[in-house]
Each structure stands twice: as structure tokens, then as C-alpha cells.
Amino acid sequence: MKNIQSKADLAINGAPPAFDEPLHVGRPNVGEKAEFLKHVDDIFESKWLSNNGPKVQILEQRVADYHSVKHCVAMSNGTIALEIAIRALELEGEVIIPSYTFIATAHALSWQGITPIFADIDPDTHCLDPDSVRKMISPNSTGIIGVHLWGQTAPVDELQKIADQHNLKVMFDAAHAFGCSYKGQMIGNFGEAEVLSFHATKLFNTFEGGAVLTNNDALAEKMRLMRNFGFSGLDNVIYSGTNGKMTEICAAMGLVNLASLDAVIEHNRLNYLAYQNGLAELSGVTLLPFDERETNNYQYVVIEVDETCSVDRDVLSEVLQAENIIVRKYFWPGCHNMLPYRQLYPNASAMLERTVKTSEQVLVLPSGTAMNAESINTVIKIIEVSLK
Ligand code: T4K
Predict the structure, then answer these.
(1) What is the pTM of this model?
(2) Ligand 1 in contact with 297 (CB < 6 A)?
(3) Using CA positions, which residue lies closest to atom 46 of ligand 1?
(4) Contact 89/212 with Cβ under 8 angstroms?
(5) Whose CA is closest to atom 33 on ligand 1?
(6) CATH code of the domain containing 126
């Protein structure tokens, strides 16, 4: 690792990069390889590879227990899990979501002919602003999907209140919020259902995977059938369904990763504290704080580079990328500015001022088990030097 003292040491000025290998946002957290290989032996032995196999069932029980929720319905990925939850809840017409989210939240609706209506965010949490949600309600609205972005929880109570007043259903995209709490209760227990992603880049991964958490028995049963083409027993299809099943090899990865999950969260917390400590004195750069009254997973380390900073966000991003620090400008430029939705709402930015501003200021920094205090100090030093 190179010692950065001045701008002349920066790779963008011709010096070699600080890191030989790229540091990625989203580097997977992986558990014990030997344990995983034991599961592989089981799978080869049993010849049971998919279709609600024993490892999927154990994983579902453990994830449900972890979140103190009745049902976990495992799926092939978070996007399919969103689609199945949306369909099982019979949402239609228009559904209100934040524009400031990963594009899958919007696509899971539009892919099934439902119109996503984009609301603005609270700049302090990057999650839905209830006042903006209220403004987006129309006679065609059937639901609200709150997103617990970065593991910060959406304003659950306020959204539920709005939904109750307008006869809408609420569900949550909890792709980032495995192991997080809202007012002391684990996510999974709010709205009609909450959707997790177990993608490789998430706190907890099954290579690819996802799940819906719910306390509603009938809804859980319906989603179990829908993820398996709607089959209710042999030769009897009672719903229009899809193939959303998780495989045994993915569940095996999940079981192994669950065993080390608490250690991963503690590692993330120390990373977050190292970033917090190092960034505290830098002017114009603010770390998005976690609410320490809650249980957090600390997986995403998010900074905002505001207008008082001596460099703008995109320049800082280029400087860091040149050093092999592969930061991300998630979720710029907002879903409403992505081609399929921009055509629908060419003037939406005027209603989504905080989304636009936040998406122009955010940088997500590398975190997870691939990072440690030393690499974080170097990242901070580079930021510090580039601000001078
Ligand atoms: N809702 C929300 C709020 C979400 O954030 C997501 C997914 C979903 C729903 C949908 O869940 P899934 O259907 O994906 O289960 C990545 C992930 O692919 C995506 O799962 C995630 N959100 C999103 C925030 O990040 P990209 O387009 O940024 O992926 P990519 O290929 O650029 O990789 C991200 C970084 O991770 C890179 O720096 C490389 C690194 N990486 C990635 C993989 C796959 C690794 O180091 N190793 C790996 O194996 O979307």
C-alpha cells in the first residue's frame, strides 16, 4: 500500500495506484469454505438439488428466527421475491415507491404492468418522505413500497398510517436491511411483507437469492405456491406462477454464511467506526450515520459530498477509482431518470428535488470483510489529500 502525502502521490496525477488489487463496494462476505464443501457432499449424496429441498427449508427457518418473524419464503433472487410479493398482494394500477433506490424496485412493478409512481426522500435517511408520498396518491393507487435503503429503515409507522387512511397496502423492499431493526423490532414484521436480497454483494448472500418475510400465513402459502408455478400438489395448478425457487447449493451458501453473520456485522461496525473517525474532520464530506438505538448491519458506508466541498463528487469518484478504490455513485441519477421511466415522466425531477440532490452527492465506499482499519485509513488519506 502506497503512502499518500500530497496530490503528487495521487494516481490521477500519474503516480501508481494506492492499491494493487481493486477494492470493490460489494465484495462478498463469505463463510467457511470447508463447511460449504461438506454441504456440497450432502447435495451430491442426496441427489436433491432444488424444489424446496431440505437445505432451503432449514435456511428459511433460520432466517425467520433471526428476524423473529413467522415466515421466510426463499426465492431465486430479490427481484423475483419483489415480483411475487407484489403479485400475491394483488397490487395493480399505481404503486408509490422512492425514485432513490436500485432500479429493481421499479422494474418489479413495471414488469407486471403496474405503474411505479416516484416519491421523494427524506435527506437525513435517504428513505421515503411521507409528505411526498401523500402528494402522489391518486384514485389508481393500490400500494406503497417503502425501501429500507442502506439498512436505514423507512418511516414504517407514517407509511402504514397513510396506507390505512387511503386503503392502500404497504410492503417493504428490505434488500439492504437483513438484521436491522425499526423501533427495536426486527425488519420482516412490518407492512404486509418485506423482501430481502441475498445477492453476492449483500451483507448476507446465497450467491444469488432472496426471500419474503411475513407474519401472514395465507400470504406466505400463496407465495410458496407462486414461486413454484402455482402447483398445489402434483398435477394441480391453482395460481398463475413463475419459477422463483432457490436451489440447494444457494441455500448451502446461506447456511454457511449465517454461521459467521454476527462476526461479519461486528467487522462492518468496526469499519464504519474507522470511517466515521477518519472522516470527521473533513469539510464538505459527511458520513450517513446509523441510528445507534437500532440494530444495524453497517454493510453500506455512504458519504455525501456537498456543495461546500472543495472537489465535487464526480471528481472525488474519479480520484478514488484511479487509486483502485472502486466506489459507486448509487443510485444516481434516480430511477425516474433512467430511460424507461424518463419517457413516462419527463418533468419528474421538479417534484423530486431531494432525490436529485442526494443522488448527485452520494458516494458509497468499500466496506465488508474485504476492508480493514489499514485499508480504510488509506482511503481516508486519499480523500483528505484530494480535498486540499
Ligand atoms: N432492491 C434493492 C434496494 C436492491 O439494492 C437490490 C439489489 C434489489 C432490490 C434486487 O435484489 P437482487 O435481485 O439483486 O437480489 C448490485 C447488485 O447486483 C444488486 O443485487 C444490488 N441491489 C445493487 C445495489 O448492487 P450492480 O449493478 O451495482 O452490480 P455490479 O455488477 O456492478 O457489482 C457491484 C459491485 O460488487 C462491483 O464493485 C463488483 C462487486 N462484486 C460483485 C459481484 C457480483 C464482487 O466483488 N463480487 C461479486 O461476485 O448491482
Answers:
(1) 0.98
(2) no
(3) 27
(4) no
(5) 26
(6) 3.40.640.10
